[in-house]
Each structure stands twice: as structure tokens, then as C-alpha cells.
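seq/struct pair 1
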Amino acid sequence: MKLSRPVSWFLLAFGVWSWIIWVTFVKNLIKDSSGLAFDDGDPTAYFWVHLTLAVVSFVLGTVVGAIGLRGLRALRQAP
């Protein structure tokens, strides 16, 4: 299957966007001082759920971005 140039760029941009957003979120989650993420220094269920969401989003963002990158590379090699 061949992806069009706009679709390939969209997928690549989505992958990059996903990493930017979720890295920022995890940094903020770790620095949380509201008591949601940590209770007396111990991670809470809120922390673990949101860390799991971030990890899954990292994986999905990486896969989607890689598909977009492969699509762009395939378009460069096409005559």
C-alpha cells in the first residue's frame, strides 16, 4: 500500500506531536505537588494510570510516526 504525501506528513507530525505532548505531561506529573500523583512520596493510582497512558501513547506515537516516515521515504524512491 502506498501512502500519499499529505497522509505521510500527517502521520509523521502526529507521532512527533504525541511525543512532545506526553513528554511534557510526564514531566509535569513527576513534579506534581497537588497530592494527586504522590501521597507522602509514594506514587498513587492516579500516577500509575497516567504513566501507563503516557507509555502507551509513546508507543503508538512512535509506530504512527514510523509509518509516516516510511511513507515519505517510499515516495522519494518512487519514479
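seq/struct pair 2
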Amino acid sequence: MNAFLPSLLGGMLIGASAVMLLLLNGRIAGISGIVGRLVQGVGLTTNLAFVLGLPLGPLAYLLVFGSWPVVQITAGWRLLIVAGLLVGFGSRMGSGCTSGHGVLGLARLSPRSMVAVATFLTAGVSTVAILRGLGL
């Protein structure tokens, strides 16, 4: 099996689900917005189905490829919690997350999404460079 096949299939599924949500519901498949609407009690059925489908991805991977996906996290819990909080704060401040801006925003040639994705990437590259420079 080619090493890129799982990533290719995953990307195709993400793209297909994003397009289906946009065409069928007129909604952008941004995780932060979907979770936010779910917490507010808006569109419970669709938003709950989308959120419940997220952890089913590894199960689908197991069914298709016969093994669990390999996930290796080398960071400690404190760093992961801080990073998660910063991502949540940034997605609210940027009116969307990487999935909404990166998948559908770029596909729709949204100027706001282009700026957001450039900011995400710049912040990510800078963070890795700084942490590596500090030996973390």
C-alpha cells in the first residue's frame, strides 16, 4: 500500500463532507463554528451528527486499512492544554478555525480566509522555530 493513500483518502473525505454541508445546509464546515452552535443549541441534529462523526474517523480507518492510525504525541500535557486553549482563543478571535478557513474559505477564494490561513501558517512556523530554539 502506498504511504500517501490514507492521507489522500482522508483529504477526499474531508473535502466531500465540507462540500456536502455547504451545498445541503449552506453552512461552512468549520469545527469551531459547529461546536459553538452545538453548545448554543442551534441546529442540534446536523451539528451533533458532524461532531459525533469526528471520533468515528479512526474507526473508519481501522475498517479500511486493518489497523489503527499511528499517532505519536511527544509534547507533555501542560503544553497540549495551553496549545489547545490558544487555538480555541485564536479561532474565536479569527472568526473561524483552520478547517473553515483552510478547506472552504480558500476554495471559495475568500480574502479573509487567505489572510487567516497565512496568519495560521506564520504563527505555526514561528512557534515551532521558537520552541526548537529553546530546546523544547
